[in-house]
From TrEMBL:
Coiled coil, from the record: none
Presence of the UniProt keyword Electron transport in the record: no
Domain called Rhodanese: residue spans: 11-133
GO MF term list: tRNA 2-selenouridine synthase activity
SMART domains given in the database record: RHOD
Gene Ontology biological-process annotations: tRNA wobble uridine modification
Name under which the protein is recorded: tRNA 2-selenouridine synthase
UniProt entry tagged with the keyword Repeat: no
UniProt keywords, alphabetically: Selenium
Amino acid sequence: MELISYEKALQKESTIYIDVRSPGEFAESTIPNAINIPVFNNKEREKIGKVYTNESPEKARMLGVDLLAPKLPELVRKIKKIAKKYNYVILFCARGGLRSESIGVISEIVGMKLYKLDGGYKSYRHFILDRLEEYDLQSRLLVIHGYTGVGKTDLLYELDEVRMPIIDLEGLANHRGSAFGSIGLDEPTNQKMFDSVLWERLEELNGEKIIAVEAESKRIGISVLPDFFLDAMDDGVHILIESSLKARVNRIFDEYVNSYNQEPELFIDRLLESLSAIQKYIVKRVGKQGYRELVKIAKEGKLKEVVKILLTEYYDPMYKYSQDKWGSFALEIESDNLQKIAKDIIKFMKNY
């Protein structure tokens, strides 16, 4: 089975990566769009690891052979089905070792041409870290500021519709920047996967004159932006969007109302957890009695009232501080109409 580096694989067309690690390893992080065909399940991997540590590597390998042998026909069939659709089928495990080698060799015996990723996932991870460490961003960033609820993420996609390149950082991180947080979303993207998807998006867009992003702090959910990107945001074109309080409340309510309607009790439980996490900040603004009243109306499912209080008493004062540090913006737009805002931005950015 031929070795191939990730860098060389990038130059190939019609490629697919098959991650033969356990489902647990795959769930934690993998190469974006890779397919998981595990040689061992989570329990089997753990069992082999214990034998390796407590007894000997040789016994661990023999246990691996015993566990793998009955699965081989089905694993090979799965890989063969995928191999028909791609020119380059690249297997990888943690370090490019026995797991990818064992299944790859058997697959080639039955006539498939496969490749093994040199160094496995570990080498891929180092590749991404090295590229982000020395990334040369040749595009300027358009940084969109605005209070919570003005629709910055929706505005990005309005700009995307009129062919302005965008990077949805919160989308990559699978995180929403509000007290409702990740309600209705899957698990937030961990750092390894965030680095990977950010690098891939940058590679798609780097060299474009302008790339639009939301104003973000260093941390988005549980992921952290690389320093070069934060520097590029600082040096970007900064614009401010303002909308009425009514429009902002309605926009946030509309974003979450489906999740509430599907599972009201679960939604309220998670909302109360989120309020508890920022309790001390809300108490500073509205006092203990005000916080108790906020919890009361949250339990009653009065979402619009909760949103309005959080915006005026928590988010707006917090974001005002970060917005004030910019002094003045290159452009300020006040409107509740995102399509109009997008057109105004496109017209303004023709000067850049």
